[in-house]
Amino acid sequence: MERHYKFIRCDFNENGTNIRDVKFFLDLLEEWELDFHDHYFPFFTNSLFANSSTMTLLNNCFVLEPGEDCGMELINSEIDINTNLEIDKHSKKQTIYAIGSRLDEDEPILLVRDETIMDGNVILKWVPDGHEEEDCPDIPVETEKRKHDEQIA
Residue 91, by phi and psi: left (phi above 0), alpha (psi -120 to 50) or beta? Predict the structure, then answer.
């Protein structure tokens, strides 16, 4: 499951604030999270894919230590945390692998650099923990579906 979102990168200053509407980039991310959840109820996004420019914008939204950097690299077009951890051992930079969801800070959103994504684009995804079917969550029961439908009405 994935949804694509667009923004104008040059509208954001070095602090992550939109110079036109004074909206913080993280607030925009929260709007996208809500949209994703509404579209794929009951799922929440657990991965954010963007290019280096967008990850730099995300860096600017946080108070990071020197040498910290948001976003792990894709390895052979896949999320491979173990390989990224090995890379970190030999790197001068320390990778920030995830941020807390703006909807639930206890739930992480993996930050993934993908240079095939154009500037000003973000892809939010729900990626299962593994590739086996048993790792996928259960389909919501009818009462959850009905509750969601009542919220929309």
Answer: beta
